[in-house]
Amino acid sequence: MATTPTPPSVYEKSNSFVEIRRTHPERENVRGRIEALAQRLDARGSLSDRDEIVREACTELLKDADSRFALRDFVVEEIRKLDDAELERYLHYRFRYEVFPPEFRVDGYPPLLQIEPTSICNYRCIFCYQTDTAFTTPKHGHMGLMPMDLFKKVVDEAEGKVEAITLASRGEPTLHKQFAEMLDYLGGKFLAVKINTNASKLTDELCHAILRSGVQTLVFSADAATEPLYSQLRVRGDLETVLTNVKRFHDIRERDYPDARTITRVSGVKVSEEQDLDQMDSVWHDLVDQVAFVKYNPWENTYLMPENEIETPCSEYWRRTFVLWDGAVNPCDTDYMATLAAGNANEASVSELWRGTRYEGLRKLHQARQRRGVSPCNRCTVV
Ligand code: SF4
């Protein structure tokens, strides 16, 4: 039987992969495209703030040593599918996503916006806060589905300002009955749309909606490729169903969307010595583009963890923000009861809240290495 491991002393959000493998690696060299982009920017003469950031990204990427910004293989794989105009937009996002948090830089919008279609999940994975009945008991008010008008409001605000949208947070997004409609609404507006799903409810209709809308990364969360380990970790899950649905997506992409931009990844949380990436690779190899394990973050009981001595600021305050199904804008999902919420997207813009008093106050405390005075950051290991 798989057991939950000892939590890490710190969880580096910027380095969450244990390992990521590309199942069909091709060698790419994007240096030439970066050089050409740098030349185009230089030819513009005066640069906007946005252009300056892209130019800074190019400068770092073209350095041979001591760069603050490098492209990992899976990022290069994303770039390979973008045209030159999109590359500029992508680098603006990616540079802010990676470099702004360690340098405590912040501008009008988060580099990444996570929108939660629903907090409800049909699984009870052993490492997830869905096992906390204080969270899942409906009368406690944390369970729900995002109304379409709120979804559209948030998307309308983000369009042109944010390139990276992840449709996932505390629940399983495909349980939202209007998920396909949400995807259609997103279509063509953002470069880096990502979905995390357990793949248990992936219908033909949803596969088409995902591919039609140009989702960049589709992550199938699965931690093992064999039973009984899979369902010991993904409690209430069924591996056969997931394999069938992942194959369904693969076949639809091959048959109907040969030029699709969507990159697929099977990603598991590494919680047990029994989990084996070679075995995962052998099972998933022909069905997805990437196979990975991510590190375990002990978020199934954040509020019960002992207080710790960590002083390093949490990068989440500078990297991304979450809009939960009820509009709460929260810095992370480790705080799954949203006790840190900076306000509500029904009442204010995401940008106002991102730069508002609550958020700035929390950033200040973290930057001053005083997170031990903030609950639940004082019990959390994310940096
Ligand atoms: S609880 Fe605090 S320290 Fe932990 S991830 Fe959230 S914001 Fe960061």
- Indicate the proportion of strand residues: 5-15%
- Cross-sheet strand order for the largest sheet: 1-7-6-5-4-3-2-8-9-10
Distance between the termini: 31 Å
Structural class: alpha/beta
pLDDT averaged residue by residue: 94
User: What's the number of helices?
Assistant: 14
Measured on Cα atoms, how large is the radius of gyration?
20 Å
Low-confidence stretches: none
Order of SSEs: EHHHHEHHEHEHEHHEHEHEEEHH
- Percent of residues in helices: 25-40%
Bound molecules: iron/sulfur cluster
Please outline the major beta sheet: 10 strands, mixed
Count every beta strand, where a strand is a DSSP E run of 2 or more residues: 10
Shape estimate: globular
Question: In words, what does this structure look like?
Answer:
With 383 residues, this protein is α/β, with parallel strands linked by helices. 36% of the residues lie in helices and 12% in strands. The protein is built from 14 helices and ten strands. It has helices at residues 31-43, 49-62, 73-80, 84-103, 133-136, 148-158, 179-186, 204-212, 229-233, 239-256, 277-284, 316-319, 350-354, 357-367; strands at 17-22, 112-115, 164-167, 192-197, 217-221, 263-269, 290-294, 320-323, 328-330, 343-344. The chain has a ten-stranded mixed beta sheet, sandwiched between helices. Strand 6 (263-269), helix 11 and strand 7 (290-294) form a beta-alpha-beta unit. It is globular, with a radius of gyration of 20 Å. The two termini are 31 Å apart. The model has no long low-confidence stretch (mean pLDDT 94). The protein binds iron/sulfur cluster. Iron/sulfur cluster is lined by residues 314, 316, 331-332, 334-335, 340, 376-377, 380, 382.
